[in-house]
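Before we proceed, please read the two lines closing this message. Report back on whether the structure tokens fit the sequence:
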Amino acid sequence: MTSVPRTPLAEALARGPLVLDGGLSNQLEAQGCDLSDALWSARLLADDPGQIERAHAAYVRAGARVLITASYQASLEGFARRGLGRTEAEALLRRSVVLARRASGAAEQEVWVAASVGPYGAMLADGSEYRGRYGVGAGELERFHRPRIEALAAAGPDVLALETVPDAEEGRALLRAVRGCGVPVWLTYSCSGGETRAGQPLEEAFAPAAENDQVVAVGVNCCAPEDVTGAVEIAARVTGKPVVVYPNSGEGWDAGARRWRGPATYDPGRVGAWVEAGARLVGGCCRVGPERIGELAALVEGRG
């Protein structure tokens, strides 16, 4: 059975919830990859693309129906710092989609590919994607995102994942940047409580997506599992669209020590509450691996 979807993602979401993959970086590290570079997992698009395909395949085996590409940290500017020109950088962005598509080849069910468009702060590689308020104008944000969006769209993903957005201003810039690219999008914010990382109410952040037909889902990612249910309720109420959620493991990142601390609080058993509140795409982000996604998939499929 072919893994290339015959069904638009929006139609599939109308039928019921789908399971996303988990953290790509933690799976790559489990495979022995060194991600200490400023490009993070995007470095492997050039240096060892087979590892990325292996990581995607691990999530397909676990039951993921949507794979998010390794392009979160990828940008023309980031690749330029590695000595790569625009043509080479655009080819690597397209490669991220190809690798995810290849990894879905052995699946017996439809698998969709979401091309990751990370925030401006991810390119800076200084943690500012978790703060927002970059001091950069809306026009400059739009100009930064547009070339990478065009390159990813050219590779034919099923959806663009505008993800881990810390700031409502950047969310609006991203929605302008994707106009006319010909690919549906989802928009997810990184949040704390009922606010974006930059401190805006989620109601304000989600509002521009409500009447935007290109947006097939809205939600949150890279946040504490405890913040998800409230965010789902807000997203569903403000936009009336399917909601996408993929929180972190719940451990805290100690930037000074460069290590994770505290207990993991990600519990696949929460999926019932998420779906009840309006979630239709559910998965995991940092430190959520194939084992947890497998547990989540079993629960979601059990609901059917």
